[in-house]
């Protein structure tokens, strides 16, 4: 049996993390499912989630219609996301590396690329929304000018603090999120008190009985579009869950890990509903701020806030910006170090961080991308979801059995092993991914933002995500049946829902291959 980790031996907060995407030794796995909950919930318990929560109102829905779309999006997203948490404890590495088993040693770069784009998108949303709230709150409290210089300082403050936490690594990030989960939740509850007098759940939106036929015909496209934008938030964590769960012992019951990931997203109903409720108040009292052509949720929130709530707004901005930024940026720096092994985790984190900060400033002051970043995020999720489907179904067909040494072949600049397939590419998983992602983009229909070439075929309803989910699942399982994988990639119990073929496993060759001892391979822990 593997030695049990000793929590008392965990590194201190100020000790820079040395582990990259190499398999975390059993003795260093001192995290718990509760830590996973804190990281995943803390990363979404922020202003940026409130901004996403305002979209149902921006799309013209009533409060109750928006509530239904929000709950649908959060629950569906949580169900899609939560199985992605099991790869970390099983393999002791991040999800992009684990995807080598299903997309091939080289195909794993797909996950790295998707995580990079996701991190930049949600890091930008976090910094922009939190920076705007901090400047706006400081303006109302202390008369701070709301010029470009103020925003530059606020954005730089958030970005540099986030980068510093990510450089220190997992333990420091976990500490930040422990503080953020409690404090941000309390501040949102305080906000509920601040706006309770103005909130009217009967806010009707534009799809009323008196609306004309043209407006009524937009209801379902708007409802589905709002639900998909909400759903993009939990799904955005798919590429990152392994970054945090890899520190959880492999012996931890799988149901606890999955449950922690699921509940972390259900808990985000708190910031989502705060955004939805306050957006309905803004639409009534300050409708100019929810103009779909130029929405400004943060400005509208400050416009309707009582003066005593300005300080909590600033605190929420600071705490939320730190929490979301660290969870988005940490994993991408970690994975980037495996794609470019000459870079250490710290060096890769600094490089990705500087590039992301440059994007934030150029996008805000040079190209004015603030309003289009939500479209960008939704498009990324459309491409990420079929990748997650391939991973989850692959885990199921393999019965949770993996070869940790073969997963590390790419990172060590080696070749061969169980997951070499066709020169490092498993075209079954790759085909299921890119075909489904392409169809999803073609069928995307986000009202007022982006409509794909085939986006109007379903009467304006965005069917991109359901379509990519179904196509990726059916296509991947079909390819596994028609073109069986090598028997060697499955464990001692054999394949589930798939056929196999006996072919020799190419030997692992390259740097360190002669001295590498195969790590023991066990099935995923049940329970």
TrEMBL record:
Basic and acidic residues: bias regions: 16-26
Keyword Cytoplasm: no
Classification via Gene3D superfamilies: Hydantoin permease
GO molecular function: transmembrane transporter activity
Membrane topology type: Multi-pass membrane protein
Membership in a protein family: Belongs to the purine-cytosine permease (2.A.39) family.
Full protein name: Cytosine permease
Lineage: Bacteria, Bacillati, Actinomycetota, Actinomycetes, Kitasatosporales
GO cellular component: plasma membrane
Entry's localization field: Membrane
Main location: membrane
Pfam family name, one: Transp_cyt_pur
Keywords carried by this UniProt record: Membrane, Transmembrane, Transmembrane helix, Transport
InterPro entries named among the record's database cross-references: Pur-cyt_permease (IPR001248), Pur-cyt_permease_Fcy2/21/22 (IPR026030)
Regions crossing the membrane: 39-61, 67-88, 109-129, 149-170, 179-197, 217-241, 262-283, 309-334, 346-367, 373-395, 432-451, 463-483
Region annotation (Disordered) ranges: 1-26
């Amino acid at each position: 049996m593997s030695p049990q980790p000793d929590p008392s031996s965990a590194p201190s907060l100020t000790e820079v993390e040395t582990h990259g995407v190499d398999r975390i030794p059993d003795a260093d796995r001192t995290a718990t499912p509760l830590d996973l909950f804190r990281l995943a919930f803390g990363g979404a318990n922020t202003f940026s989630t409130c901004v996403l929560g305002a979209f149902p109102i921006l799309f013209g829905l009533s409060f109750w219609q928006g509530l239904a779309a929000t709950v649908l999006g959060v629950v569906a997203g949580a169900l899609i996301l939560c199985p992605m948490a099991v790869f970390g404890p099983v393999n002791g590495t991040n999800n992009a590396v684990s995807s080598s088993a299903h997309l091939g040693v080289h195909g794993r770069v797909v996950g790295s690329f998707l995580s990079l784009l996701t991190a930049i998108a949600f890091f930008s949303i976090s910094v922009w929304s939190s920076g705007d709230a901090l400047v706006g709150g400081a303006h109302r409290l202390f008369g701070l000018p709301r010029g470009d210089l103020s925003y530059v300082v606020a954005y730089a403050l958030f970005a540099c603090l986030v980068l510093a936490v990510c450089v220190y690594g997992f333990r420091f990030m976990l500490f930040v999120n422990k503080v953020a989960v409690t404090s941000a939740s309390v501040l949102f509850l305080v906000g509920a008190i601040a706006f309770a007098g103005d909130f009217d759940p009967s806010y009707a939106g534009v799809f009323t009985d008196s609306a004309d036929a043209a407006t009524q015909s937009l209801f379902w496209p708007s409802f589905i579009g709002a639900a998909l934008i909400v759903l993009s938030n939990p799904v955005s964590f798919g590429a990152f869950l392994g970054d945090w769960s890899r520190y959880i012992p492999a012996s931890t019951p799988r149901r606890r890990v999955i449950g922690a990931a699921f509940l972390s997203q259900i808990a985000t109903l708190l910031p989502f509903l705060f955004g939805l409720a306050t957006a309905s108040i803004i639409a009534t009292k300050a409708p100019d701020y929810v103009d779909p052509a130029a929405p400004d949720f943060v400005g509208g929130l400050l416009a309707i806030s009582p003066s005593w709530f300005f300080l909590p707004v600033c605190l929420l901005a600071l705490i939320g910006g730190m929490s979301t930024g660290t969870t988005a940026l940490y994993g991408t720096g970690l994975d980037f170090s495996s794609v470019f092994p000459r870079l250490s985790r710290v060096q890769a984190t600094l490089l990705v961080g500087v590039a992301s900060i440059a994007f934030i400033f150029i996008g805000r002051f040079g190209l004015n991308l603030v309003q289009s970043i939500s479209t960008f995020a939704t498009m990324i999720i459309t491409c990420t979801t079929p990748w997650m489907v391939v991973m989850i179904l692959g885990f199921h067909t393999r019965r949770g059995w993996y070869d940790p040494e073969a997963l590390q072949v790419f990172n060590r600049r080696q070749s061969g092993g169980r997951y070499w397939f066709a020169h490092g590419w498993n075209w079954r998983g790759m085909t299921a991914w890119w075909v489904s992602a392409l169809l999803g983009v073609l069928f995307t229909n986000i009202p007022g933002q982006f409509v794909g070439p085939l986006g109007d075929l379903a009467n304006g309803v965005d069917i991109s995500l359901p379509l990519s989910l179904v196509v990726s699942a059916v296509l991947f399982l079909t390819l596994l049946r028609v073109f069986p994988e090598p028997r060697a990639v499955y464990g001692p119990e054999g394949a589930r829902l798939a056929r196999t073929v006996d072919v020799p496993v190419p030997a692992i060759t390259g740097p360190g291959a002669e001295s590498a001892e195969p790590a023991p391979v066990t099935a995923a822990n049940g329970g």
